[in-house]
Design a protein that fits this description.
Its EC number is 2.7.1.-. The protein has 454 residues and is of the alpha/beta class. The chain folds into 2 domains: 4-229, ATPase, nucleotide binding domain (Nucleotidyltransferase, domain 5), CATH 3.30.420; 234-454, ATPase, nucleotide binding domain (Nucleotidyltransferase, domain 5, 2-Layer Sandwich). It has helices at 50-65, 106-115, 119-126, 136-146, 148-153, 160-169, 176-179, 195-199, 233-244, 271-275, 296-311, 325-334, 354-377, 395-404, 418-426, 428-431, and strands spanning 4-12, 17-22, 28-34, 39-40, 46-47, 70-79, 84-87, 156-159, 186-187, 192-193, 215-220, 223-228, 231-232, 249-254, 258-262, 278-282, 288-294, 384-389, 409-414, 442-446. The strands form 5 sheets. Strands 1, 2, 3, 6, 11, 12 and 13 form a 7-stranded mixed sheet that branches. Strands 16-17-15-14-18-19-20 form a 7-stranded mixed sheet. The chain has a two-stranded antiparallel ribbon with strand order 4-5. A hairpin with a 2-residue loop joins strand 11 (215-220) and strand 12. It is globular. The termini are far apart.
């Protein structure tokens, strides 16, 4: 029996750590998932268990290499961002993987921004809103001033995808999708590290940049294959769309955060956009992706709980609620629908039932989403909006979005494991001679309704 050529992808989230095998047509032929108990850093704050992660990578990779039916041709990694692994001269970690939610000392923030031109100008140049530890470069700055002895021990600071790649290859690299995502490290005007990275001696802690579509030849446990340097997960999820669609589009990736990604908007980030939660990502080919964020998934989760409690219905009820234009018309006539109206401020006793309240919740979310997505569109010629993730399956959300964007075609887009697939496709040419199929993304078109939604 001939072995099936495959690429292995480790997709490491905060909660779930997954390994996928994709065949040459990017169909998932094997999947394994693991969850680890977090450990704590020296301050008692929760953080990733690096040793569990390291062992899981080795064990899972060894397991698939032993499988008779697969021939692993290549390997790549995607993980959550804003997370560094610090390794010393001996190649071993010298510190915990500090959590990006760790509180950042206020006096160090003031010291940093006072030294490097103030929050607004700095944020504009680096496309990085002021986010404390979520700006991963600030984690290194903190170590330098709070733990100078540890700083001296650090040979390389590797973002998490590059650390996982290093575990297998023994080679150290930096990746543009990780350093170009709200890290405070990259100056988008100069297309280089910001001057503070050089002046503070941070640059020498970084390995050479390996383009996202490049690989290194690696031997592991008697097997030879091609290995990528790894990608930031948000950038990886965009890759299948860039491969399939070449006319300007927006990808609205929906989850806890709803992120509007526009790889066709090259306008520099303005201070006004930053204040409205816009930022830039970097795609795997090193070009900026204008983006805007909305905490809509979290709001939806909290407010559906409130509706469920008030009306005494199960939260699963809302998964099957269909768009009802009569509810929309009635709500528009009864209640204010202005930009200042937040559903969290609405009194649930004014609604007749849970379904009516839920329609109002989605109306309020879509009004915010319209503003957020338009920030990313601007004058970039976008004619299509692809919605993936949870809201893509929400009938009310999709119909209201179709009405909110009458000049654009709106599609619910779905594919199996977009982040992992994008990570695989990034190094397609290094292992796979089969052309990338045009049907890896399933699209459902939502026409504009006859009812006008203000």
């Amino acid at each position: 029996m001939s072995k099936k050529p495959v690429i292995a992808v480790f997709d490491v989230g905060k909660t779930n750590k997954k390994l996928f095998l994709f065949d040459e047509h990017y169909r998932i032929v094997y999947e394994k998932s693991a969850r680890f108990i977090e450990t704590v850093d020296e301050d008692g704050d929760p953080c990733e268990n690096l040793e569990s992660l390291r062992l899981s990578v080795f064990d899972s990779l060894s397991e698939v290499l032993r499988k008779e039916e697969f021939d692993v041709k290549a390997l790549n990694f995607s993980t959550y961002g804003a997370s560094f692994v610090y390794i010393g001269e001996d190649g071993l970690p010298v510190a915990p993987l500090y959590n990006y939610l760790k509180l950042y000392p206020e006096h160090l923030l003031k010291q940093f921004y006072n030294t490097y031109g103030g929050e607004e100008e700095f944020a504009k140049n680096t496309a990085s809103p002021v986010l404390g530890s979520l700006n991963s470069g600030m984690q290194l700055y903190r170590i330098k001033y709070e733990k100078p002895e540890l700083f001296e021990k650090i040979k390389y600071a590797l973002h998490l995808p590059q650390y996982l790649s290093y575990l297998v290859t023994g080679k150290v690299f930096t990746d543009i999708t990780s350093i170009g995502c709200h890290t405070n490290l990259w100056d988008f005007q100069k297309n280089d590290y910001h001057r503070w990275v050089y002046e503070e001696g941070i640059a020498e802690k970084f390995a050479p940049i390996l383009p996202g579509d490049q690989i290194v030849e690696t031997a592991f446990q008697g097997h030879s294959f091609k290995v990528g340097a790894g990608l930031h997960d948000s950038s990886a999820a965009l890759i299948p769309y860039l491969e399939n669609f070449h006319e300007p589009f927006i990808l609205l990736s929906t989850g806890t955060w709803c992120i509007s990604l526009n790889p066709f908007n090259s306008n520099p980030l303005t201070l006004e956009e930053l204040k409205q939660d816009s930022l830039c990502y970097m795609n795997y080919k090193g070009t900026p992706v204008k983006a805007s964020r909305l905490f809509a998934g979290y709001e939806h989760e909290q407010e559906t709980k409130r509706i469920s409690g008030h009306f005494g219905v199960g939260s699963s009820t809302f998964k099957t609620v269909k768009y009802n234009p009569e509810y929309i018309a009635s709500l528009k006539s009864k209640f204010s629908q202005g930009d200042d109206n937040k559903f969290a401020d609405r009194d649930l006793s004014v609604f007749e039932n849970a379904t009516e309240a839920y329609h109002q919740l989605i109306m309020d979310i879509v009004r915010q989403q319209e503003k957020s997505t338009k920030l990313a569109i601007q004058d970039s010629g976008v004619r299509r909006i692809f919605v993936d993730g949870g809201f893509g399956n929400n009938d009310i959300f999709m119909h209201l979005m179709a009405n909110a964007f009458p000049e654009e075609e709106l599609f619910a887009a779905s594919m199996a494991q977009a982040t992992a697939m994008g990570t695989a496709i990034a190094i397609h040419k290094s292992w796979n001679r089969t052309p990338i199929s045009g049907n890896i993304i399933e699209l459902r078109f939502y026409p504009r309704s006859t009812e006008e939604i203000a």
